[in-house]
Specification:
alpha+beta, 3-stranded mixed β-sheet, 14 helices, rod-shaped
């Protein structure tokens, strides 16, 4: 009804004319015709705009085609749209392909439907392109901004050693605790494996087998010397001192076992003390042998007083005094700063190093230094005695053995300082085995060869003839 009145009033207002004339030549006078009176009545009947909007919002009807007409709260009408995709064929022809539609009247949230498989992107494929400058950084990486480019442009940098990132697009990596280490993907911290030189691994097994073999070999040499103790070659170079040296070498090989295995308080304290003690016995015994050879040559001169030093007390006195000094160093070391088992948390790899902390390392190097001093003294005495006459003069053998011994321990120090963990222990065990094997091989193997293979020259007559020729 309201719309009909509006249409009628509009037609009346459109057909009327307004005339304005000058009445009696007086400006400002106006004659209002009948049509003006009708317009005035129309304005009096006009409704406010908000009332008209109220009725328009509630209009809802269907057209002859079945489309429903209504207005939403924003005043928009129901308009359906087709979604078209511009596609370029191989012949570079443009095609508009319908890939979806927009239906505001659809029910169940299906107002927009798109067939993504029918879309052809500018790359020429159906793969949706990424509208970003850089792809997201996966876990294990961090974002590194590119200089002079927007913040959305960045590089993905792997996390550094000992760090992880467990989220996408991490700005910085997180450092793992001291007892943990990143996994291979650097996205999670895992517990570190405890590392020490064990008997079960190939390196520990090899060193164990070598120690056992050299111990058995030394025992065999000792048995040979005891079995042929009355032969000239055994008696010529202080038989008792040879026994003493072979036993000390046997202990040197056996002390390697203390270094292998899980570190404990007792083994940490014993292994360096045992090593220093038995090696001091070995080296001092070699030095005593060198001194006895030199004294024996001096005793052959007429009116020489050196013969009084040829008794058995002299070599054992030299060995005991040399051992006493080393034992004092080791005792002070144990009392003041004893070694102890230590789990190193600051290792820069995926393993925790379980090792023996040597305490005050100055005592360790004092022990090595004193052992080096004994070896140097033995080398000098043996070198000076190498050309002295004698059928079985072992000064040359001692010279070569001390040369091997000193070379091993000089090369040991830089190798020891440049390694960590189980490899540091393995270097020390290898130095113990190789230096002990050098003493055994240079001093006793030639004698065993004569005893077992060439018994014809292991006679007093051969010894006397060789002495006279010298």
């Amino acid at each position: 009804m309201l719309l009909e009145h509006l249409r009628e009033d509009f037609r009346e207002g459109a057909s009327s004319k307004v005339a304005s004339v000058d009445a009696g030549g007086k400006p400002g006078s106006r004659v209002i015709p009948a049509a003006g009176r009708d317009r005035k009545r129309l304005e009096e009947r006009r409704l406010p705009a908000f009332q008209i909007l109220h009725y328009l919002k509630n209009v809802r009807f269907k057209t002859r085609t079945g489309d429903e007409i209504f207005f939403d709260e924003n005043g928009d009408g129901p308009v359906a749209y087709e979604i078209l995709n511009v596609q370029i064929s191989q012949e570079e022809d443009f095609q508009l392909v319908k890939v979806g539609k927009l239906e505001p009247t659809a029910q169940g949230g299906k107002d927009i439907t798109i067939n993504t498989g029918a879309i052809l992107w500018s790359t020429g494929t159906a793969q949706v392109p990424l509208s970003v400058c850089s792809e997201s950084c996966p876990p294990g990486y961090r974002k590194a901004a590119r200089e002079g480019e927007p913040t959305c442009c960045f590089n993905c940098v792997p996390c550094s050693l000992g760090e992880i990132s467990n989220g996408t697009d991490a700005v910085k990596c997180l450092k793992c605790p001291d007892n943990e280490w990143p996994n291979e993907r650097h996205d999670q911290c895992i517990q570190k494996e405890v590392e020490f030189l064990s008997y079960g691994e190939p390196l520990g097994l090899t060193l164990t087998f070598s120690s056992a073999f050299m111990t058995i070999l030394t025992t065999s040499v000792l048995c040979v010397f005891i079995r042929y103790r009355d032969t000239p070659i055994v008696k010529a170079n202080n038989r008792d001192l040879s026994y003493f040296l072979l036993i000390s070498l046997m202990l040197c090989f056996l002390c390697s076992f203390i270094f292998i295995g899980r570190p404990k308080k007792l083994t940490c304290m014993l292994r360096q003390i045992a090593f220093g003690t038995v090696f001091s016995i070995s080296v001092s015994s070699v030095m005593a042998k060198s001194i006895i050879v030199f004294i024996a040559f001096k005793a052959t001169h007429p009116n020489s007083s050196a013969s009084k030093w040829l008794g058995p007390k002299t070599p054992f006195g030299i060995s005991f005094f040399s051992l006493l000094v080393q034992m004092v160093i080791c005792t002070v070391w144990v009392v003041k700063s004893p070694p102890f088992p230590d789990l190193s948390m600051k290792s820069y790899n995926e393993k925790l190093i379980f090792e023996c902390n040597e305490g005050d390392t100055i005592f360790f190097y004092c022990m090595l230094g004193y052992m080096g001093l004994l070896a140097t003294a033995s080398f000098i005495v043996a070198f000076l005695s190498r050309n002295l006459p004698g059928g079985f003069n072992e000064a040359k053998l001692i010279t070569f053995s001390m040369l091997v011994f000193v070379s091993v321990w000089i090369s040991f120090i830089p190798a020891y300082l440049s390694t960590r963990g189980k490899y540091m222990v393995a270097v020390e065990v290898f130095a113990i085995l190789s230096s002990s094997a050098g003493l055994l091989g240079c001093i006793f193997v030639p004698k065993c060869y004569i005893i077992l293979v060439r018994p014809d020259i292991n006679t007093r007559q051969h010894l006397i003839r060789k002495t006279h020729r010298a």
